[in-house]
Every structure is written in C-alpha cells, then in structure tokens.
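Researcher: Here's a chain I'd like modeled. Treat it as a single chain, no partners, no ligands.
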Amino acid sequence: MSNPGNQPDLRDLPPEGVQELLVSLGEKPFRARQVLRWLYLGGARNFGEMTDLSKNLRARLAEAARLTDLEPAEVHTAADGTRKLLYNLEDGARIEGVLIPEEDHHTLCVSSQVGCRMGCKFCRTGSLGFTRGLRPAEIVGQVLAARRLADEARPLTNLVFMGMGEPLDNLDHLLLALGHILGEYGLQMSQRRVTVSTVGLADRLADLGAGTPAALAVSLNASNDALRSRLMPVNRRFSLATLKAALLAYPLKPTRRITLEYVLLGGVNDRPEQALELATWCRGLKCKVNLIPFNPHEGAGFQAPDEATVLAFQRVLLDNNLTALFRRSRGAEIGAACGQLAARATAEDDEDPED
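Model: Modeled as a single isolated chain. Structure tokens:
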C-alpha cells in the first residue's frame, strides 16, 4: 500500500485495525467507536477536530497515525452545475471526480486508480496508462470532499465508481473503502445508491459479490467478441460467453438488476442489427441497459451517433423486452462526461475554475 509516511493512515485500516491501534496506545476498545465516528460521519480533517477525545489522546494519535485529507485543487463547473474535481495526491499523482447535481441530491463519480491499464479505445483515461491503485483513504477522501461541496438541499447520496481506473483491478482497496462507505462504523450510505462499474474482469466478480452489497454495472459496448475485443482488450482475456457465465452466477438480491453500460460509437456499434444481437446476448440475465452516446475527446477516433440512431437502437431493445435507458451525458463541455477524465495538470484548455 503506497504511503509517503511511516504512520498508518486511519482510513486505510478496517474498523478492527483502528481498535487495535487504540488498544496499543493503552486505550479501551470502545474508544475506536468514537474515532470511527469522527473519521466518517464527522468527516474529521485532522485529529484536533476530534473534540470529544482528550487532548492527550489526540496528541498520541497524531504521533502514531495520520489522516489523508483531500481537497480539490481545481473545480470546473459546467452550465448544468456539474463539477469536475481535480485532486493532487501526496505523491504528486492526480485524479479527477465528477459531482453531478440532481433534483434533490448529488451523485459523485469516484475514481479508483491513477490512470488505467484496461486500454479501452474510446476512453480517455485508458490512453494515460496505469500508475497505481488508490489507497482506501484516497477513495473515501473523494467522498468526504464531495460531501463538503454538496449543499444541504441536495446532499451527496449516490456514488458511482465510474471515474478513473478499473475498480476490480484494485479490488482489495475498493472493498475496504466500500466497507467504510456502507458500513455500520462508516458513512452508512445506502447500498442501493452505490454502484461499482467494471469492464468485466470475470475472475474477480465472485469476490466482488461476496465482499460488498453495492450494485453492479458492466461496461459492455459490443454484442460480439470480434468487435468487443477491438474496442476493449479485456475481452481477449474474458470473452462475452465467459463474462455472461460470471454474471449469471453473480449474487443478486431479488429486487436488483445488473446494469449494462453501452457506449454508442457512431457507425461502429450502433446499428439495429447490433441492438438485436445485444438483446439476444442479454437473454437470461436480470439486467437493464444504459445507452450512452460517445463523448468526444482529444485524440479519439470515434464520433457520437445522432439522436435518431440512439432512439432506433433503444427501440430494438425495448421491443425485445429489455429495459433500455437513454443516458444523456453531463459536463461534456468541461471534460467531465463518461470517458473524458484525464486529470490534467492545469486548466489551460478548460473553462476558468471556480475561485
């Protein structure tokens, strides 16, 4: 686990790890519950804010451990209120997240890695290459920072792990972070409102399903192996048949469905016959399909289909008894839409950041 300092970061530890640390400092185990409340529900940014602990204990904690505190270095705001958040990490790496306003709440698009090694041809993050996975503290830190930015009328209630990186390629840290986000001693967010999206690492789906009750989304984007292997190198390791078998075995609650994400690339994967092929592949799966027109970005060799093409594709799916939703992207003009995140060092090519 990457750690610039010698002290453990408390948000990198499971609850029992926090308890063990406090016991090692001579404290009773119940003190861990106080500290955990400050770490998550209290959102403490330093030990000095843990005001129901003695000054002596706060000082000893500061010597024995540390807290990662993320604050956006840059915030870019789109016309619809979508905000792209750029974070500078302790080792100089950069990541981005996206805070999306809805009618009565906010949704945060969370990153799980610096860069990505999956190499999907339509995704800008994939062109960056891979640097490292994020620590649990860095994953949860994005949520805590976004919570401070969300207003009381529209609190942060929904998370989608669809930012930079492949969550299942950082599975251990992801599961620990999800424990902090969903757990009794963490943020206690609703499991129905937290979604993990994967390109389809079929060999890790069982561990994901066993490790978290969060919802599952799969980035599919093609209805046959030849095309999907061209667009998504992961398909050369895990074919559509292998992926479907893993999804059929995935532990779903009775009221849940798997979300299949399908980025529509103009003239590539958007024809009615491909929609019919997709509908055929989906048979037997408890799923819904989100249709996402491609969001252009620098260096991409694709274009978005027109709306009539999207609607025709959707109609084929609906006629085959699939739930198919047309998802219009948010924040494309500031590079915050699906597939556009690149964690640029400066804002020279974007709109001016907020003060």
